[in-house]
Structures are given as structure tokens and as C-alpha cells.
Amino acid sequence: MVKRVLVTAAVVIGALGAAAGCSGPAPQSSSRASAEAEIPVVTASPTVSNLNKALLPLDQYVATADQMSDLQYASALLASDCMKRYGIAWDPGERPVLAWFRDRTNRLGFVDEVNAAKFGYHPDPATAGDGQNPDKKRGVQLTDEQARVLQGDGDGQKSNGDIPEGGCFGEGRRKIGWDPGDTMWVQMIWNDATQRSLADKRATELNARWSSCMAESGYRYDKFEDAQDDRRWWKQDDAPASRAEINTAVADVRCKKKINYVGALTAVLVAYQQQAVDKNAERLASVRGKTDEALKKAAAVLGGR
Q1: Is pLDDT above 70 for 138?
Q2: CB proximity list for 56: less than 8 A, separation 6 or greater
Q3: Got the DSSP string for 202-248?
Q4: DSSP readout, 5-57?
Q5: What residues are paired with 5 via a beta bridge?
Q6: Single pTM value for the model
Q7: What average pLDDT does range 193-222 have in this prediction?
Q8: Of the candidates 114, 93, 118, which has an alpha carbon nearest to the alpha carbon of residue 8?
Q9: How many Cα neighbours within 13 Å face the side chain of 155?
Q10: How far apart are CA 238 and CA 12, in angstroms?
Q11: Which of 130, 134, 167, 256 has the fewest CB atoms within 10 Å, i.e. is most exposed?
Q12: Bigger pLDDT: 13 or 289?
């Protein structure tokens, strides 16, 4: 029996991780460098209730959710054209919404009180997926061989001699000049700055203040993540949040607001991101320039459909 797999335009974002491994040097802040790096100075902590409202140093180098959607969908449409050359009808489905990419409310920790009051630490079922309506057209089932034509062999090599490197997806990306590895490289820098911020002594001090606040409300947790990771909440992933979970989540968020958690940690994150920008300025500017050119070509593809 021929095995079939479901492949849609959303596959593009999943391929970023694989592409990153062969896209030039890693950011200068490796694990050892992170430990030895100079701790940046923070002079003030803004009052920020949501990271979506903060302007961060790396924002100018990161494609927005709408831009990522354009890059992905234009690549997918071109991949569909490529598939036709091999006699394969492949529909990329709906344009990806990337709701998870768009919303960074909880990037520094759980702070969404509206969600907490309704669902505890569990996600809103309406937005728990990838932001797309599951009833919309999602692509077609492909055989393993057809999927290989679309995606390549996964090792960057050509398949059967005449299939483009990286499959038809690879061809589509190259036609608009988009290198997902560059996108992933910038994301790696972002993630590294975030992890360094969370490990910073100023985050540790915030943690202690939050723990004291929680204790005043009758909750005993040493670290931020302990409340969200409480095993009582995760015995059944699909079970609705209990009243105890909801009460804990609300207390958690309110304590974070009391200590200006998001504002204080955002100030630390800004400092680490600026440090990363200063160290990687030349390549970041180059990546942004290539992304802008790819977006122009993507717009031409999308405008002609």
C-alpha cells in the first residue's frame, strides 16, 4: 500500500529549523559566549503590560507575521507550478495566518489575564492551533514520492537527478530569493537574547518578589514556571481548566502586574537584544535587505494570482 502524507503551505515554517543548520555561522552568542558575555546595563524599566506593545531592537530585522505569510504563500504557489511539471496537482491551501507568530503576549512568561480567567494556563481552544480555520482547504494527500518532489530529500540534495534541490519548495523560495535559514538565524538571536534575559540576575530578583506575592495569596511556588507547570493542571491535556487552576493563573498574572514583570523584563530584553544587534549588525542588515527584496518578488507573485 502506498503511504500518503498531508502537505500544505504551512510546511514551509516547519522547514525553517532544517534550513537553519546550513545557513552560515551561528550568532556570536553561543552558550559559552552567553555565559561570559558582558551583562548589559538597564537604567529604567518601562511600564509595559504586553510585549506586543513594546518596540524591540530586533524588530527592524524580523519579518512581520504578514510578511512571513507573503513569503510562505508566494513560495508555495511557485512550488505548485513546479509540481505541475512533474504531473502532480498540488494545492497549497489557504494563505497561512500564523497567529502564533503574530502574538507575543506570553513570550516572556504567562501574563494574559483574560486567558487566565477563562482557561487557566491552557490555551483558548479557538486559537490553540496555527490560527487557521480547520474547515478551510488544507492541501491534498501526497504519496511519499510526490512529497519528495515537493520537499526534496530533506538533506539538501537533489532527488532522482532532475528534482530541484530542496524539492519544489526549494525552487519556489529561490525564485523569490528567500532563504528560510536567514529567517531562522535571526530567530535564534532573538531566542538567545530572551533566554539570557530570563537567566539574568534581575529576572531572578523579579522571581523572588513574585514568589512572595503569590505566598501572600496562599500559593507556594518558588519559580515563575512552577505555577504553570504544576502537574495538577496537565493530567489530561484536553480537559478544561479546573477552578483551582484558573484561580492560580489569575493570581499569577496579577502578581506579575504588581511587580511590573513585563516592563522590568522587557527592559532587560531590550538591553540583551541591543547587545546582539551591535555584535551582528552587518549580517543583520544584509539579511533584512535580502528579505525586503524577497518581499518585493513575493508581492509580484501574489499580485498575479
Answers
A1: no
A2: 266, 269, 270, 273
A3: HHHHHHHHHHHHHHHTT---SSHHHHHT-GGGGSSTTSPPPHHHHHH
A4: EEE-TTHHHHTHHHHHTTSSPPPS--HHHHHHSPPPP-------S-GGG---G
A5: 142
A6: 0.80
A7: 97
A8: 93
A9: 4
A10: 28
A11: 134
A12: 289
Which amino acid makes up residue 84?
K
According to the model, what pLDDT value does residue 128 have? 64
Question: Could you tell me the CA-to-CA distances from 219 to 154, 171, 205, 210, 268 in Å, in that order?
Answer: 48, 54, 18, 11, 27
For residues 58 and 61, what is the distance between their CA atoms, to the nearest angstrom?
5
- pLDDT tens column, 72-86: 999 999 999 999 999
pLDDT of residue 237: 72
Close Cβ partners of 31 (under 8 Å, ≥ 6 residues apart): none
pLDDT the model gives residue 49: 81
Query: Quick one: cell of 149?
Result: 518532489
In Å, the largest CA–CA distance within the chain is: 67
C-alpha separations of 131 from 98, 219, 238 in Å: 6, 33, 18
Q: Is 123 left (phi over 0), alpha (psi -120 to 50) or beta?
A: beta
Decide: helix, strand or coil at residue 276: helix
Which candidate, 194, 167, 166, places its Cα nearest to that of 181? 166
Distance separating alpha carbons of residues 220 and 288, to the nearest angstrom: 45
State the residue for C-alpha cell 484558573: 246
